[in-house]
Structure formats: structure tokens, C-alpha cells
TrEMBL record:
Pfam families linked to this entry: Acyltransferase (PF01553)
Transferase is among the record's keywords: yes
Phospholipid/glycerol acyltransferase domain: residues covered: 72-183
PANTHER family per the UniProt record, alphabetical: LYSOPHOSPHATIDYLCHOLINE ACYLTRANSFERASE (PTHR23063:SF52), PHOSPHOLIPID ACYLTRANSFERASE (PTHR23063)
Biological processes, Gene Ontology terms: lipid metabolic process
Domain of life: Bacteria
GO MF term (any one): acyltransferase activity
One GO CC term on file: membrane
Annotated keywords: Acyltransferase, Lipid metabolism, Membrane, Transferase, Transmembrane, Transmembrane helix
Source species of the chain: Pseudomonas versuta
Regions crossing the membrane: 12-30
Name of the protein in its database record: 1-acyl-sn-glycerol-3-phosphate acyltransferase
Length: 264
């Protein structure tokens, strides 16, 4: 019965992916017919898809903080491919992704049609991407990036690469730091991280072999970019997110001023 439930959950996710493929095909047809397919519309449809995908994933989501009402450059720590769905459901967003994602079966095509920007690490195209990001933000279109450049196990934060934060400075938009934490039974979740040589399908099966986990999404205080150096911005965002990610966990017990409180 557990195996049947696992495959049933996977089938639900695949059904949502099928919905996404249908939406992406529609945008492809609109492009060929030269019909209106604005980025703002793609972002709205992407949010619709991400919401359905999150509903199919085995997570209970808690959002702490206010979702911005004005366009910002969102920066977040990165734990898993599921980060994209969990954050993408909050508001219409585009994503900055590594170039390898473009070549992923199904997911890469969906990312392209959703309006993602792609960067090749070490390829010297950061200036071009910076210009594309600036243009995106100047059109009042929110954008999210993962400045660590890779995923972690969720218990630490790597150094933020700040060169692309220049797009926020150029566009005079604030940074929106986001800290995402996966928790299972009050401890750091070691099932959710997508790291190393993980395979997407096997990772999905692994998620569904377990019960639901909890996800905290912390929308932290925005950081003004006016007259700030990109290295300073990167450090401030990194430390704000680190303060949440490395906060002590106390199982099911409460935390007061960063310390575990004993329950009698």
C-alpha cells in the first residue's frame, strides 16, 4: 500500500507537469503566430503552475514576512529544485538559472517558456546577463536568483557571488533576501536537499517515500541598493539569510532569543 501511495503521489506530480507542458506549448504557439505573450503574462501563468506543483509536493509550507508589492531582485539560499516551485508560487517571478537547466528534459523547456534567464558559469557572459537582468527589472518584472551558485544541505549558507547584484544597483530596485528551511520532526530535513549526483526522478521518489515535511520561507527585510557596492549588498543579504538558516533547532520545543527553552 505504501508503494502504491508513493507512485500515486508521483503520478499527481507528473499530471501537473503535463499541465505545464500544455501551457508551454500554448506559449510556443502564440510565439509562432506573433500573438501577445508578454513576460508579465508568462510570470502569472508560471505562478499558477508553481502553485499546482507545490500542492502536489509533500510539504507543509509556512511563509513568514510580507510578499513585496513592488518589483525587487529576490536572492535566496538554495537547497533543492523544489525551492523554485515553493518560491515561484508566492508571486509572479522569473528565475536566473544555470545554463545546464536549459538542457534538462521537460524541465528545461518549461523553464525557457516561463521566461527564465540562463547563465554559464565561467563562460564570461556575466556582463550580458547583467544587462538582461537590468532590462527585466526596469520593466517592473521581479526576478529571483540563487547567489550561492549551487545547492547545499540546508544547514549552512555558502558565499554569495555579488557580481550580478549590479543589476539591482543599475535598476535602482531593492534586494529581497529570502531564507528557506526544510524541517522534518523539528530537525533539519536531510531528505529534501538535492545535492551531489542526485537524479531528479529518484529524488522525487525519495521525497514520496517519506511523510510530509515542513518548509519555512522567511521573507526578510528588503535591502536598499542605492549607493551601495555589490560586495556589500551580497554580504548583507548573505548574513541576513545565514541568521535564519543557522538558527538553533529544538525539535518540537520553542526557541527564545536564539536559545532552546526547556519544557517541563
Amino acid at each position: 500500500m505504501n508503494r502504491l501511495r508513493q507512485y500515486g503521489r508521483v503520478a499527481r506530480v507528473l499530471a501537473v507537469v503535463g499541465l505545464g507542458l500544455g501551457m508551454a506549448s500554448l506559449f510556443g504557439l502564440m510565439e509562432r503566430l506573433h500573438l501577445d505573450g508578454t513576460m508579465a503574462r508568462r510570470q502569472r501563468w508560471s505562478q499558477f503552475f508553481m502553485t499546482r506543483l507545490c500542492d502536489a509536493l509533500p510539504f507543509r509550507v509556512k511563509v513568514l514576512g510580507e510578499v513585496p508589492t513592488v518589483p525587487m531582485l529576490w536572492v535566496s539560499n538554495h537547497v533543492s529544485w523544489t525551492d523554485i516551485a515553493l518560491l515561484g508560487q508566492l508571486t509572479p517571478l522569473s528565475f536566473l538559472s544555470k545554463a545546464e537547466v536549459r538542457g534538462w528534459p521537460v524541465a528545461g523547456w518549461l523553464a525557457v517558456k516561463a521566461g527564465s534567464l540562463f547563465i554559464r558559469r565561467g563562460a564570461g557572459d556575466s556582463q550580458l546577463i547583467r544587462q538582461q537582468m537590468s532590462q527585466h527589472l526596469q520593466q517592473q518584472l521581479p526576478l529571483l536568483m540563487f547567489p550561492e551558485g549551487t545547492t547545499t544541505d540546508g544547514r549552512s549558507v555558502r558565499t554569495f557571488h555579488g557580481r550580478l547584484l549590479s543589476a539591482a544597483i543599475d535598476s535602482r530596485v531593492p534586494l529581497q533576501p529570502v531564507a528557506i528551511r526544510y524541517l522534518r520532526d523539528g530537525e533539519a530535513d536531510m531528505v529534501a536537499p538535492f545535492i551531489g549526483d542526485d537524479d531528479l526522478l529518484f529524488h522525487l521518489l525519495r521525497l514520496f517515500r517519506h511523510d510530509q515535511a515542513d518548509v519555512e520561507i522567511h521573507l526578510l527585510e528588503p535591502i536598499a541598493c542605492h549607493q551601495q557596492e555589490r560586495a556589500v549588498l551580497a554580504f548583507r543579504a548573505q548574513e541576513a539569510i545565514r541568521g535564519v538558516v543557522t538558527r538553533p533547532l529544538c525539535g518540537s520545543g520553542p526557541v527564545l532569543d536564539g536559545a532552546c527553552v526547556a519544557q517541563v
